[in-house]
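[User]
Um, tokens okay?
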Amino acid sequence: MSEGLSDRATSCVTGAIGLLSSLTYVVAARRIEDSLLADAVGASGVPVAVGVLMAVASIALLIKGLVPSAKAHSGSVKSKGALIESAESLMRPHWFAAGLLVILMAYLLILPWLGYIVSIGLLSAAVAWFSGGREHKALLGFVVLTGPLLWILFDFALKVRMPAGFWPTLFAG
């Protein structure tokens, strides 16, 4: 019975795939043509930055997989209970990622109706709660501040128009 890839092998494979993907993404992003209205950064600036950030994270995974850890050399035999606990701890990140994906899908569904300000506030609060933040006042403050601050950043500073939702029609007449 195979136990699957080790943590080191998983890190190496994920890092290599991520590095290849990020390099492909950066090359594709560099091909985005600038319009006459483009600023100094250009249309490809943000996608290239995201691709570079993804490459850095992939390189970190590769290093994690290639550098031997002290735990790998312990050589201790695990009991059945320790193996079950180990399997559960390996699944925790997958369930966490799946939960974050569900939150993100909910955000994408409510964005057109509630608009950016409300949706991003709810998204940030949901992620904070899901990550372990349980203080109600802090979560409420997070909702109230995050949406407007990010909207100001994108709408005014970066001139990126964000979805308004149904609010303009509600207050228009």
Summary: The chain is about 70% helix and 0% strand.
